[in-house]
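agent> Task received from the user: take the single chain below, predict its 3D structure, and emit structure tokens. No templates, no multimer pairing.
agent> Plan: (1) validate residues, (2) run structure prediction, (3) serialize to tokens, (4) report one or two observations.
agent> Step 1 OK, no nonstandard residues flagged.
tool_call: predict_structure(input=
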Amino acid sequence: MSLTGHFIDDDWKLHKKILNLCQVKDHKGETIGRKIEMCLREWGINCIFTLTVDNAGSNGATIKFLQIVTKDWEETILEHEFLHMRCCAHILNLIVGDGMREIEASIAKVREAVRYVKSSPNRNQTFISFVERLGIESKSFLCLDVPTRWNSTYLMLETAQKFEKVFIQMNFEDDSYSSYFMNKENSGGIESPSGIDFQNCRRFVGFLKLFYNAMKKFSGSLYVTANTFFDEMFVIQENIFHLSKSQNHFLKNMATKMESKFDKYWGKMDKMNHFLHMTVVLDPRKKLRFLKFCFSKIYWNEVAIVMVELVRGSLVKLYDYYSCVDSPKVQVPSGSERTHIEGESIGCSDPYAMVNSRFNRFLEAEQSIGCSNEIDKYLVENCESRRGMDVLAVPIFTIASESTISIGGRILDPFQSSLSPLMVQNLVCAQDWLQALVPISSCKSKDELEALEDEFHDLVIRQAAIGGGSSSSSKGISIKVDD
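)
tool_result: status=success, residues=483
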């Protein structure tokens, strides 16, 4: 299990740290929950803001367990009412997966054609000669996908459809290509792609681009991602809705399947973490007005009003919590102090400027009438013009946690394959923390990168036997877990 912490420090810098990479004896929700609790206690972390997990069935039990055992921890926020954050990337995978089944046969044919070209240098050179003869210009070239990763399938289809004429021509002129598909043992019984197959893939690629762009935004780790969710979700939902009403039978079936999966996870407010909507409200260009606009375009106006009020209620809850914990006591001026303030213009070098200053304070008070707190005042103000905390630290995906497992493969060579689980955890965490101090992108050469790795290995060897951890004073840390 990989446990990754996200937080924003006092200098407004976003941090991502691998906290633990440890073994769990089974995939039961309580087992995983107890392991997370133990890891957090070892680090001295006494509060968690959110826990981002994928859609495995056991994760629901994990969340419920942690809500109970950490409910009384210091600085627990709103009794973990909004603790559970579903991985948006996994939900996108499920939605796209349902849509891809509609053209699974066409995708398989294109994949096999690409595999044929990429299988040998001679076949690849023959393909290039057809490209040059047909005068096709493209900066991209064929790439074979990983069938279980739809984003790689998107890239394969996006490039392959540009060379449709080449594949069709090869089917007529290249005996090796045509005989490959005629031999069922070679191609697995799949026929060569036809013009209809490429047409289906082209239509799907145009729609899939929305999901691909959303996935790229969601999966970032060097910038906040919670504020990117709603815009992407709204655009995707609108496109799915319109395509489900399409006269094109292919597009309609594909969109209908996607719509069903979309509604399962994001169709109703009670299925979503309200923090995903609060980030919209905290954008001074959007506030509640943008939510109302988007909801009204998808649902009935009555439903939109109810949904907006639910978000407002959750935001007020969060504001009230921070007001009680963090806000300083406001001293109301006494009568003598108030008289002094109002008489500031007497003897002032510029009494007119002082009057204007007092008038501005009067206007601020007038505008805030009826606003019981700062959040109400913020919401009634006009939105800022559209120009180019804890809530922002919430990660909406678990991809970074999953990549931790891949990191282990890079640091364990054949001579280190017998390391204990504790040592593996030390190696992975140390590499992650050191690379955060000196990002790989800043290394100018392979030698510099190797020097960094040597330094980190030496450090781990010196510290591994010591063990222990450190405490964190950051409030509202957001955690991602992947097992």
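agent> Step 4: summary for the user.
The first strand starts at residue 2 and ends at 8.
agent> Done.
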